[in-house]
Amino acid sequence: MGGQAQNRVQVLRPGDQGPEVTELQLRLNQLNLYTGPANGTYDGVTENAVGNYQLARGITQDEPGVYGAATRTRLESETRRP
Q1: Is the distance from CB of 39 to CB of 22 less than 8 angstroms?
Q2: CA 2 to CA 67: how far, in whole Å?
Q3: Range of the structural domain that residue 45 is part of
Q4: Is residue 33 part of a domain?
Q5: Which partner for 70 in 8, 13, 28, 61 could form a disulfide, CB atoms 3.0-4.6 Å apart?
Q6: Among 16, 18, 31, which Cα is nearest to 75's?
Q7: CATH number, domain at 39?
């Protein structure tokens, strides 16, 4: 099996863990949408924050509470890299 391209957008969803989730949490924190710990665990609090962000921005291309390409592009445009 070949490796995936580095620039491929990773979709994050509840149950995921790792540095990408930590970055998501820190970006949501910049907008005061997430106040929990930046612990790298995509839990219910993170899912709710993503869902609220999507609702506020009218993002419907991704599943509610799932950090997909459309949500990532918009959030990254509004926040700085942590």
Answers
A1: yes
A2: 25
A3: 19-78
A4: yes
A5: 61
A6: 31
A7: 1.10.101.10
Helices (H), 1-82: 19-30, 44-57, 69-78
Q: How many domains does the chain have?
A: 1
What pTM was computed for the model?
0.88
Q: Is residue 70 included in any domain, yes or no?
A: yes
Residue range 6-48, pLDDT digits in tens: 446 689 999 999 999 999 999 999 999 999 999 999 999 999 9
Task: Grade residue 4 by pLDDT with cuts at 50, 70 and 90.
Answer: very low
pLDDT computed for residue 10 by the predictor: 87
DSSP 8: S
Does residue 14 lie in a domain region? no
